[in-house]
Amino acid sequence: MSTLSKPNHIGRKISRIRELRDMKQEALAQALGISQQTISAIENSETIEEDRLSEIAKVLGVTVEAIKSFSEESMINYFNTFNEAVSDSSFGSIHNNKCTFNPLDKLVESFEENKKLYERLLQAEKEKIEYLEKLLKEK
């Protein structure tokens, strides 16, 4: 049975969200401080206590409402919307990164800044040498 056939089966929703998070029952159990068998029992339950549901939601990184309203159909629609947006992009690739600056300009900028820093360091060294020479002449 899927969440489509039993839309109010909280345990199956938790199980599916856990799987989508690529989390094993053992990991969820450890995070909650309970046994893996308890997680299995929870995932086979149609209902769950609000306090426990809140704890599970926190560990899974979702809200209680997200668990309650979860459905496979909504997930499919979400990913279809995402894929349509990607295919509509001007480059037609998943990685549609648009640089808001010219990297070469940034590189030249950093070289110019390094040059200014070097010149300031050189000037400071010259001043130090002049000061030391002045001290030597006074003695």
TrEMBL record:
<keyword id="KW-0175">Coiled coil</keyword>
<feature type="domain" description="HTH cro/C1-type">
    <location>
        <begin position="14"/>
        <end position="67"/>
    </location>
</feature>
<dbReference type="InterPro" id="IPR010982">
    <property type="entry name" value="Lambda_DNA-bd_dom_sf"/>
</dbReference>
<dbReference type="InterPro" id="IPR001387">
    <property type="entry name" value="Cro/C1-type_HTH"/>
</dbReference>
<keyword id="KW-0238">DNA-binding</keyword>
<protein>
    <submittedName>
        <fullName>Helix-turn-helix transcriptional regulator</fullName>
    </submittedName>
</protein>
<dbReference type="Pfam" id="PF01381">
    <property type="entry name" value="HTH_3"/>
</dbReference>
<feature type="coiled-coil region">
    <location>
        <begin position="107"/>
        <end position="135"/>
    </location>
</feature>
